[in-house]
Write a structure and sequence with these properties.
About 35% of the residues lie in helices and about 25% in strands. With about 260 residues, the chain is α/β, with parallel strands linked by helices. It has one domain: Vaccinia Virus protein VP39 (Rossmann fold), CATH 3.40.50.150. The chain is globular.
Length: about 260
């Protein structure tokens, strides 16, 4: 089912969209570019950069307007970090709408934004020596995730709009596709969301959010947590779930 989106100007002058299906905006009305920079670039990419990552693989839940991908392209060029960016979208923005988005005009990369929307689905494209990109027109629930990533941009619509995407089965998938010490970042700071993240194995941090939000969430697939438990097998969501069912707090190899 296609989603008929409507343009709206947010408080920092950048566009967001209103989803007709879900009746929510794609970004904070307090500033679309501002929000994406705080949540995904600073809390995600800059966090990894401080930990000496020379290359970063990204999985984005919700390509949407392409804003996060555009900001990541700019970041990769500026920092000269190799980025491999995979993104999924169930309700693509129409060409009529994407052509009107003002991110390229504001940021100075209109052609890149145009190409992000124009390029074919499921084709890996090298936009520059530092940025490769592939997008998938699928629902996350039915998407076969095989690669491993350093960061997940979890940018689904709100838990009230898409509750199934914020439950443990999907969050367990996100845990499994992350490399150890990888991070999931989200604008959402809802208590149930953070509890679900902890349930599937993440260490969860509540950190300052963008304008209009006191907090946001960063979840880490913590290698030190795994080592301290003496785990030698792959620590997946299924292993976590088995430990809960068995009524144990940690998983000891060989027991």
């Amino acid at each position: 089912m296609p989603d008929n989106q409507k343009l709206q100007i947010s408080e920092d002058g950048s566009h967001t969209l209103i989803s007709e299906i879900f009746q929510v905006t794609y970004h904070s009305i307090h500033g679309a570019i501002t929000e994406s920079n705080v949540v995904f670039i600073d809390a995600g990419l800059n966090f990894l950069l401080k930990n000496n990552y020379s290359s970063i693989s990204i999985f984005e839940m919700g390509f949407g307007t392409g804003l996060n991908a555009l900001l990541t392209y700019i970041w990769a060029e500026k920092n000269q970090v190799n980025v491999d960016y995979h993104t999924i979208e169930a309700y693509p923005v129409s060409k009529d709408i994407s052509d009107q988005l003002n991110y390229g005009e504001i940021l100075g990369y209109q052609e890149i934004l145009y190409q992000l929307h124009k390029c074919d689905w499921e084709i890996e494209i090298n936009f520059s020596p530092y940025f490769s990109f592939c997008k998938y027109h699928q629902e996350l629930e039915n998407f076969d995730l095989k690669s491993k990533y350093d960061v997940v941009f979890f940018d689904a619509f709100s838990p009230a709009s898409q509750p199934q995407l914020w439950e443990t089965p999907i969050l367990g998938k996100m845990y499994d596709i992350l490399n150890y010490d990888g991070v999931l970042v989200s604008y959402c700071a809802q208590g149930a969301f953070k509890r679900n993240l902890k349930m599937v194995g993440f260490r969860v941090e509540a950190i300052p959010g963008p304008p209009g939000k006191r907090e946001m969430t960063r979840a880490i697939k913590d290698l030190s947590k795994v080592k301290s438990a003496g785990i030698t097998e792959e620590f997946t969501f299924d292993v976590v779930l088995e430990s809960i069912i068995a009524g144990v707090d940690t998983i000891i190899s060989g027991d």
